[in-house]
Structures are given as structure tokens and as C-alpha cells.
Design goal:
The protein contains 16 helices and 35 strands. By secondary structure, it is α+β, with helices and mostly antiparallel strands. The termini are far apart. The structure holds guanosine-5'-triphosphate (GTP) and magnesium ion (MG). The site of magnesium ion has 7 residues, from helix 1.
Length: 675
């Protein structure tokens, strides 16, 4: 099978969960005869939602890469999950695509998932098309959804290309606003004429010569209109809106034709490499491709998926990984239809294809036929908002778990794994509870290990508000080899994490033991006196001591310093500090009251409010300790429509009443351990 870039259309299907993206993709495959039988989400036969997890939930979890031929054009498209926490699957699909087809529910209209889909389209600078689906339902209202879109993205930008004839159960077909007005039902004539006028205005505005003819009353040819719409779509001046029902197979051919007729070919899509060079795709010349995704196949191992940017990549050829200089061998190239792999000989710009067993290639790398090819910038992903502390059920499985989790993180950049040095826990983070649970189920499949999870400990820290002095004489001189060391030190608050000064005069502590004193202090700082947390922001000055010619040792000075530091800490008004996060919450306006009230209970500070694409954006600072279940809480507070981002802001002193609770809890659990 060979492809021609001019005849490729490459798009991502995105939108809110439940709007019908997967059903639409199954129908497109069926209509294009890429499959013999129409797949169905409800019957668990979808080509796109093929994993057991997706079939069980009847909802997409992973992006499925699909392909079919329509009107002699090759479509490479992807069906993305609408559920917010699976954003790590959606971003790579956008990066690989040349346009976004945003699916909306004709009843619920412009929901959070659709807003996000448009926003991603804007940030990846790709044309956006809208398909208003589920218009067969009685309470659906196409015109209301169009109005919502126009309010959010511009009245003359979101223009209907097709209109529904009949409503609800009587919805029977769509008409194109560009077709002969005589064939448009009377009740739609005026609306269609208005849409046509806006479209013609848009087309004419882009071209002075056309504008002159248009204003002079001349008819524009169909080719001129299509060309103009194509340019307007490309520049973002137009978001064409289509009406339909996947269940009834109404309006879908019109969307597919629209994609063929007015969206870009991959040869038109220039990209900027990380060194600023503009890449203009061509079918000849040195080939380059961007690896946007890795998939773990239990049988084959790692599979790399790439989008060809320029030139042709062939099966059984060599290529360079431009990020690390490794020579890679491309074995059998394939493209996908869900889980079905279709072998191909060569791939041209716009193709989305995959290859197994690359040696040293990760997601975000660029492959190139020559070292002169340019490296593309990697993708950026939102930071995780939900974490588990994970540990092995069976001791000895720790390495297997770590390896397995690392592989999962390579496949999904919104998953993170790290060993927290302060709490000594392995922290597995992602975009929500369900996201992590699904990943842990995958871990069980690939590594055959069981893990247990708990809420991560908060890495509190301890600091001081005042100054303090400490002294300790360590002496064990009865029987055997004796031990002796004495240390006097003082501590004070510091802007640095840790400062150490030696103010000992006259050799009260010989110079060679000073490093041991510092080591003793550093060890003591690992476990503060209040709640056993790491101590920071202290300056320690050792100013006096005593030693013994025979019995003093490094060990003895370490012990003395440790104890002296602890005494000084207790006198220096120690305080507990906690990590505070900057939080950005996106929500429909109706939930703002509940969200702010809830944040107040969480010791949160509201920093600001604004509006973005029809959503309210609330910025706040909230202690991490209050956010451990926020991803889940926000979902339930907003019926799944609110999302949030967070990042570390700073450590702040914990209010005394809250600190007392934490300290008491620590002391109680410590006592239990000692008992
Ligand atoms: N009435 C009606 N139902 C539809 C239509 N299209 C899809 N559905 C149903 O809507 C439900 C959700 O459809 P999906 O295709 O799974 O939706 P999705 O957008 O892929 O959802 P996520 O994968 O969760 O993001 C299924 O039960 C479909 O049968 C339609 O045109 N009309
Ligand atoms: Mg789906």
C-alpha cells in the first residue's frame, strides 16, 4: 500500500466524554469500508475501544489510531478519550494531527471536554471543525449549540455548513447551506441564506479580487468558494459546524466530505523545529518523523508511533535518532486500525505509523535520515494532580515494580514515579484516581506483580523562628575502648536551606573532627524534634567543645553534635512547615460558589478569578495536605465538569492549631512504634 501526501487527511477526533466520538469513528470506518461490520461501543465490538478496560467501562481510555479511505483520500485519524484525566493520551494525538474534529452533544452543548478540545486545537495551531452529534434525541437543539459556539469562539467564525431537517425522533437528514436554495426546506431557508452569506463574506474577505467581484454581485464559482473556505479554516477564521446523528447515520458523510474538500493536506502544514528552522514538508529529500507515542505490547515490547514530517520512510531501512545519535533500524512499518496492524512499505508526510523494537527511542524524539535533519521540540504535559504511595505486596518485588512503573511512565507522560527522599515513600502520580488505578492494572499485566497503595505522607518540614543553643557531652569511658566528645553549638534562622560555620578557637575541637560535627548535624536535620520531618533554613555554628586524645573519634563527635543540635532546635521555637500548591480550577460558573466555599474549608486562599472560553478560572493557593483527594472531590462537586491544575508554590508555616494536630498524631504513632 502506498500513499500520496496530497491525498491524505489527518485529524484528531476530540470532545467531551459521551458525545459519540468513538461511535463516530466506528461509523466512519464502516462507511469507508475499512471494516465489514459496524463496531459498537454499547455491544463491546468497537474497533476503537478494543481494550477490556474500555469495553467494561463503555468509554475510551486510550487514543485509538485509525485509518480508512474516503473518496480516494486516505484518512489517518485518532479517537481520543473525553474523560479529563486521560489528557496524556490526547496531547500526542493532537501533535500528530493536522486538524481537530470536535464532537459535541446536541443536548449538552459546549461541555468542558469540548472547550478543552478547542483550546488544544488553538495551542497546537491546527484547524478546528465541529460536529454536533446526537441530534436524534428529543431534547437536542442544534441551533442552541451553534449559538453557544458562536458566543465562545465568534459569531462569524462558527458557521453551520449543514442544518438538520426535522427534530428529535423526526430528524431525518441534513441539508448543506451551500446547496441549491430550492432544495432547502422553507423553515430553514432564511437561516441557510444567512450562513451562506457569512461564508461568502469570509471567503471574499481573504482575497481582494474576489471581494470586488462578490460586491459587484457576481457569483463565485464552487471551486473559489471551496478554496476560500479551505484558507479560512487553515487560518482559524472559520470553524465549520456540521449537524448529525451517528446512531441514525445522518450527517456523517457530509463531515467526511468536508474534511476532504476544505481541510489541509499534510504538505501544507509547516512546523517549526526546536532550533527555529521552518520545516516545509515534501515527499522527496531527507525523511524526518516525530515520535509522539510509545505503546507497551506484552508480546512485542515497546512500539513507537511516529508521524512522518517530511520525506519518505521505508520498511527495512536505517534511520537516526536525532536526539541521541543512535542508529535505529526500521523493520516492518505498520499503520493501525485499533488493534489491527496493517503492514506498509513506505510512509509519506502525514502518515501515522508505527514500528517495533527501536533500541533507544523515546516519546518526543525525532527520527531523521540525515544528521542535517532538525530536532523537533518535545511535547509538554500538565503536572500530575493525584498521587499514591505504592509498595510491594510481596517483598522482593520492589525492582520489578519500579521497572514496570517506569515503562508505564514512558508510555504516558502524565504518569510520574519518584522516590521521596523525605518520606521514604515511592510516589506514583497521575491525573486522577481512575487514571492511576488503570495504570496499576496494566502494571499487573506487564510485570505480574501486586502493589498496595496508600495516601502519600505529606513531606512536612521543620524550621525555627528563634535562636537556640545546644550542648552535649558524649562520654563512655567505662571498660573497653572509651568514647568522648563534647560539642557546643548555636542555631539561628537562615535564608539558605542549611549553613554551617566553625567558630571554635584554640583547638577546643581539633579541625579534623569538625566535618564529623557537621555530619552529626546533617543527620539530626533528617529528623526534626516536632514530627520527625526534615529540618531546613537553619544556620548552625559550632563554637566550643572538648576532646580526649585517645577516646575521641568521628563517631563520638557525630553523636555529640546530633544531640546538641536537637537541644538547640527545641529551644529555638521550632515550627512545622507544609508544601502549598498553586491551584488553577476551571469550572462552569454555576459551581463557583460551592468550589470557593469548599476551598475555604481547605485552608485555601483565593488569588483571583477570570473567565476563559466560557469557563470560570479560579486561582488559589492550597496546602498539599488538603488536596490529596481534590481530583475526585472536584469531579463530584461539578458533575465531572470541573478540572484543575496544580504546581508546587512554596513551603509555609502551618497554623498552630493544625500543627498541633499533626504533631500529636506523629507522637502517638511514634509511641505505638516504640511500644
Ligand atoms: N442517541 C444517540 N446516541 C449516540 C449517538 N452517538 C453515540 N451515541 C451513544 O452515546 C454513548 C457514548 O458514545 P461514545 O461513542 O462511546 O462516546 P465517546 O465520545 O467516545 O465517549 P468517551 O470515549 O467516554 O470520551 C454510546 O452509548 C453511544 O451509543 C447518537 O447520534 N445518538
Ligand atoms: Mg470514546
Amino acid at each position: 500500500m502506498k500513499f500520496e501526501s496530497e491525498k491524505i487527511r489527518n485529524f484528531v477526533v476530540a470532545g467531551h466524554s459521551g458525545s459519540g466520538k468513538t461511535s463516530l469513528c466506528d461509523l466512519m470506518l464502516y462507511k469507508a469500508k475499512a471494516v465489514d461490520r459496524l463496531g459498537s461501543v454499547d455491544n463491546k465490538t468497537s474497533v476503537s475501544d478494543f481494550t477490556p478496560d474500555e469495553q467494561e467501562k463503555r468509554s475510551s481510555i486510550y487514543t485509538a489510531y485509525l485509518s480508512c479511505e474516503w473518496n480516494h483520500f486516505r484518512f489517518f485519524f485518532s479517537d481520543t478519550p473525553g474523560y479529563g484525566p486521560f489528557i496524556g493520551e490526547v496531547i500526542p494525538a493532537y501533535r500528530a494531527s493536522g486538524a481537530a474534529l470536535v464532537v459535541l452533544d446536541g443536548v449538552n452543548g459546549l461541555e468542558m471536554g469540548a472547550v478543552r478540545a478547542f483550546k488544544l486545537g488553538k495551542s497546537f495551531d491546527i484547524p478546528k471543525l465541529a460536529f454536533v452529534n446526537r441530534l436524534d434525541r428529543d431534547d437536542a437543539d442544534y441551533f442552541k449549540v451553534v449559538e453557544q459556539l458562536q458566543d465562545a469562539y465568534g459569531k462569524n467564525v462558527c458557521v453551520p455548513m449543514t442544518l438538520p431537517v426535522g427534530k428529535g425522533a423526526k430528524f431525518e437528514r441534513v441539508v448543506s447551506v451551500l446547496e441549491d436554495p430550492a432544495t432547502i426546506p422553507d423553515e430553514l431557508k432564511e437561516y441557510a441564506a444567512h450562513c451562506r452569506e457569512v461564508l461568502f463574506d469570509t471567503v471574499a474577505e481573504a482575497d481582494e479580487a474576489l471581494m470586488e467581484r462578490y460586491l459587484g454581485g457576481e457569483q463565485l464559482t464552487e471551486a473559489e468558494v471551496m478554496h476560500g473556505l479551505h484558507d479560512a479554516l487553515k487560518s482559524g477564521a472559520l470553524i465549520p459546524v456540521f449537524a448529525g446523528s451517528v446512531t441514525k447515520d445522518i450527517g456523517v458523510s457530509e463531515v467526511m466530505n468536508g474534511i476532504v474538500n476544505i481541510s489541509q493536506s499534510p504538505l501544507e502544514r509547516t512546523r517549526v523545529a526546536s532550533d527555529g528552522t521552518v520545516i516545509r514538508p515534501r515527499e522527496d529529500g531527507d525523511a524526518a518523523a516525530f515520535v509522539f507515542k510509545s505503546v507497551l505490547d506484552p508480546h512485542v515490547g515497546q512500539f513507537a508511533f511516529f508521524r512522518v514530517l517530511t520525506g519518505k520512510i521505508r520498511s527495512n531501512s536505517d534511520i537516526l535518532n536525532l536526539n541521541n545519535g543512535t542508529k535505529e533500524h526500521i523493520g516492518q512499518l505498520i499503520f493501525l486500525n485499533g488493534k489491527t496492524q496493517i503492514p506498509i512499505e513506505e510512509a509519506c508526510p502525514g502518515c501515522i505509523c508505527g514500528v517495533a523494537k527501536l533500541r533507544a527511542t523515546k516519546t518526543g524524539d525525532t527520527l531523521g535520515e540525515s544528521p542535517k535533519c532538525h530536532v523537533m521540540s518535545p511535547m509538554t504535559f500538565p503536572s500530575p494532580v493525584f498521587s499514591y504511595a505504592v509498595s510491594a505486596v510481596k517483598s522482593g518485588d520492589e525492582d520489578k515494580i519500579m521497572n514496570g512503573l517506569q515503562k508505564l511512565c514512558e508510555c504516558d507522560p502524565t504518569l510520574h514515579i519518584e522516590l521521596n527522599k523525605e518520606t521514604h515513600e515511592t510516589i506514583f502520580s497521575g491525573m486522577g484516581e481512575l487514571h492511576l488505578q488503570i495504570a496499576l492494572r496494566r502494571l499487573k499485566e506487564i510485570a505480574r506483580v501486586e502493589v498496595q497503595v496508600s495516601a502519600p505522607k505529606i513531606p512536612y518540614r521543620e524550621a525555627i523562628n528563634g535562636r537556640g543553643e545546644g550542648h552535649y557531652r558524649h562520654k563512655k569511658q567505662s571498660g573497653g575502648h572509651g568514647q568522648f566528645a563534647e560539642v557546643f553549638l548555636r542555631i539561628e534562622p537562615s535564608g539558605e536551606r542549611f549553613e554551617f560555620a566553625n567558630a571554635v578557637v584554640g583547638g577546643a575541637i581539633p579541625k579534623n573532627f569538625i566535618p564529623a560535627v557537621e555530619k552529626g548535624v546533617v543527620e539530626a536535620m533528617e529528623c526534626g524534634p516536632l514530627a520527625g520531618c526534615v529540618v531546613e533554613n537553619v544556620k548552625v555554628t559550632v563554637y566550643d567543645g572538648k576532646f580526649h586524645d585517645v577516646d575521641s573519634s568521628e563517631m563520638a563527635f557525630k553523636i555529640a553534635a546530633r544531640k546538641a543540635f536537637r537541644e538547640a532546635m527545641e529551644k529555638a521555637n521550632p515550627v512545622l512547615k507544609e508544601p502549598v500548591m498553586s491551584v488553577k480550577i476551571y469550572t462552569p460558573a454555576e459551581f463557583m460558589g460551592d468550589i470557593t466555599g469548599h476551598l475555604n474549608h481547605k485552608r485555601g486562599r483565593i488569588i483571583g478569578m477570570s473567565a476563559e472560553d466560557g469557563m470560570q478560572v479560579l486561582e488559589a493557593e492550597v496546602p498539599l495536605a488538603e488536596l490529596s483527594k481534590y481530583a475526585t472531590e472536584l469531579r463530584s462537586m461539578t458533575q465531572g465538569r470541573g478540572t484543575f491544575e496544580m504546581e508546587f508554590a512554596r513551603y509555609e508555616v502551618v497554623a498552630p492549631n493544625v500543627a498541633a494536630e499533626i504533631i500529636n498524631k506523629f507522637k502517638a504513632s511514634h509511641k505505638e512504634e516504640e511500644d
